[in-house]
Amino acid sequence: MPAPKRGRRPGQNETRQAVLEAARARFATDGFTATTIRRIAADAGVDAALVMQFYKSKDELFGAVMSVPPEALDRMTEAWKGPADGIGERVAQAFLEVWERDPRTSAPLLAMLRGTIARDQAAGHMRDFIEARLMRGAAAHLRDDHDTRLRIGVAAAMLVGIIVARCVVQVPTVADESLETIAATAGAALQELLTPTEQSSGTGRQPAS
Amino acid sequence: MPAPKRGRRPGQNETRQAVLEAARARFATDGFTATTIRRIAADAGVDAALVMQFYKSKDELFGAVMSVPPEALDRMTEAWKGPADGIGERVAQAFLEVWERDPRTSAPLLAMLRGTIARDQAAGHMRDFIEARLMRGAAAHLRDDHDTRLRIGVAAAMLVGIIVARCVVQVPTVADESLETIAATAGAALQELLTPTEQSSGTGRQPAS
DNA sequence: CGCTAATATCAACACGTGTTGAGATTTTCG
DNA sequence: CGAAAATCTCAACACGTGTTGATATTAGCG
C-alpha cells in the first residue's frame, strides 16, 4: 500500500464531522477513559494529531460531543405541562422516547451517560447483582408471573437510579435530603408500582395513543 | 489430607486486609480504570508488586472487593416479605439503609456502583444536566415548593435509573421490554409520585418507625 | 504567480500503566 | 540449626497514552 497522501484533500470538508461522529460513537460505546484519541482517529480515517489540532484536548472533544440538541430538552419539558391526570405516563413516555427512540437525541444523551460508565467487567457485575440478587430475592416473596417480574425490575432500576443520583452524581435536591424523606417519597411511588390499582394492571396493556 | 502448614504463618495478616481496604476505598472513589495498582499499594503502605502477588491481576483484586456481604442481601430480601400494605416504603427504606447507612454493607456496594462510574468530568455533566435541564424544566410547569422540587428530583432519578438499567447495564427483564410497556409501568408509579394522594403528602413526614 | 491559512501525516516525547523476575528478609517447621 | 516457604522490595520491561513540533500538500485569494 502506497503512503497515504499528505496535505489538504480536495473537495468538501467533511472530516471535522467525521471525527465528531466517530468520537460520539466511541464515547458512547467504550466510555471516556477507555476511548483513545488514536481509536477515534482510526475510526474517522485520519491521524491522531489531526484530532488534537481540531480540538485542543481530549476533554474539549468530549465537551463538543456532549452538546444536547435543544429539541430533546423541549420535548421532555413539554411533557410536564398539561393536566395532572396521566402526567406520570406522559413524562415517562417522552423521557424514554428522547433517550432511546430518536437517534438524533439519544446519541449525545447516551454518549453522556455511557461516557461516565466504564465499559469494564463492572457493568456485568452490576447486571448480575441486580438480576440475581435483587430481583430473584424479591420474586421469591411475590407472585412469579411475567408482569410481577417486570414490576420488580422497574422498581430495582428506580432504586438504583436514586442511589446513583444521591451517592455518585450527587444531584443537590435529591442528595441533600435525609434517607427517611427519600424513602418515604420513593416508597409511595413504589407502592403503586408493586401493588397496582385496577386501572393500571396487566402486562400487554397498550398506552393511550 | 492433613494440612501441613508449612512456611511463614500469617501471624499478622494485616497487610492483606490493608490492601483490600485500600483497594475498596480507591475503587469506590475513583472508579476502576482511574484506580491504579500503585496508588492502592501506596495507600496500603506496600509495594505495588506485593499487591500483584496477593491478587494475580487488577481484575481479580476488583473481584475480591466486589464481595457483597450476605447480610446485605438478606436485609433487602426480607423487606419484600410481609403485608402488601406499606411494601413500597419498606423496600425503599431497607434498600437505602443497606446502600447508604451501614458502612459495612455500603462500602462494597458503593465500590461496585462507583467502580463502574468514571470519576471524570462526565459525572459533573450528568449532574448539571439533571439539575438544570430536567428538573428546572419540570419545575416551570409545576408548583415551586420544596416538596414538589424533591418529588421532581426523585422522579428524574428514577427515570435515569431505568435508562441505565436498559441501555447501559442491560438488565434482561427491564431491557427486553418494549418502550411502551416500560413507560406504562413506570408511568403509574410516577403518577403517584407527582400527584400524591392525601396520606402520602408532606415533606418532613416521619415514616412509620 | 505568490502568499497565507487550513489540512493532513509523521516521528517522537514524556509519562503512567499492569506486570514480571530476581533477590532480600523474616517466619515457620522438621 | 537448616531448609522451606511466605512476605516484601527493587528495578525494569513492554506497551499505550495524550500531546507536540516539524513538515508536506492543498485551497483560496489578490
UniProtKB/TrEMBL annotation, chains A, B:
DNA-binding annotation, residue ranges on this chain: 36-55
InterPro entries: Homeodomain-like_sf, HTH-type_TetR-like_transc_reg, HTH_TetR, Tet_transcr_reg_TetR-rel_C_sf, TetR_C_16
Keyword hit for Glycosyltransferase: no
The keyword Cytoplasm is assigned to this record: no
Top-level taxonomic group: Bacteria
Domain spans labelled HTH tetR-type: 13-73
Keywords (A to Z) from UniProt: DNA-binding
Entries under Pfam families matching the protein: TetR_C_16, TetR_N
Gene3D superfamilies, per database record: Homeodomain-like (1.10.10.60), Tetracycline Repressor, domain 2 (1.10.357.10)
UniProt protein name: TetR family transcriptional regulator
